[in-house]
Amino acid sequence: MIELIVLDVDGTLTDGKITYTQSGDELKSFCVKDGLAIASWIRLGKQVAIITGRESAIVARRASELGIKHYYQGVHNKQEVLVEILHSLNLTMENVASMGDDLNDKTMLKASKRSYVPKNASFHVKRDADVILTRNGGDAAVREMIEELISSEGLEEDYLALWS
């Protein structure tokens, strides 16, 4: 049973674009549909982790808003951090579904029980993914992943009951 979803940020939770203001501030956009699905997954008693190669206060804020307790920024080796998270939660890779879009996600995706990539992921990452989603990163791809997991894990009734 999948207990932990691990997500990349740029190109997965966002469209992969980074915008800088004239004063040097960084801007990112997150899809509210992804946020609702993430919050629902957590309400089902499941875990979510963010592991990203970049550092941004925006990511910390979004993780906090969604109730994501495990988020790691500036990570070079994502699989190594994932192993640390699993030890802290007393889980194994058999309990993990992950989503990423680029080369720095490959080892994490290959190690996970189930791996997902957005439609616009790197070709080299798509080759190793279990599921290539129909949506691009930042455009409800995470929601698509979570709803596929909810269906495959037999959690649809509980998921819909959250909002009844």
Question: What do these coordinates show?
Answer:
This protein is of the alpha/beta class. The chain has seven helices and eight strands. The protein has one domain (4-161): HAD superfamily/HAD-like (Rossmann fold). Helices cover 38% and strands 16% of the residues. The strands form two sheets. It has a six-stranded parallel β-sheet, with helices on both faces. The protein has a two-stranded antiparallel sheet with strand order 2-3. Strand 6 (96-99), helix 4 and strand 7 form a beta-alpha-beta unit. The protein is globular.
Given the C-alpha coordinates, what overall shape results?
globular
Number of helices: 7
Give the strand order, joined by hyphens, for the main sheet. 5-4-1-6-7-8
Question: In percent, how helical is the residue content?
Answer: 25-40%
Q: Beta-strand level of the residues, as a percent range? A: 15-25%
- Major sheet description: 6 strands, parallel
Overall average pLDDT:
97
- End-to-end C-alpha gap: 25 Å
Radius of gyration: 15 Å
- Give the number of DSSP strands: 8
Which structural category do the helix and sheet elements fall into?
Answer: alpha/beta
Tally the structural domains.
1
CATH-defined fold name = Rossmann fold
Q: Point out poorly predicted stretches.
A: none
SSE string: EEEHEHEHEHEHEHH
Reading off the top of the CATH hierarchy, the class is best stated as Alpha Beta
> Any idea what the CATH superfamily is called?
HAD superfamily/HAD-like
Q: In the CATH hierarchy, what is the architecture at level 2?
A: 3-Layer(aba) Sandwich
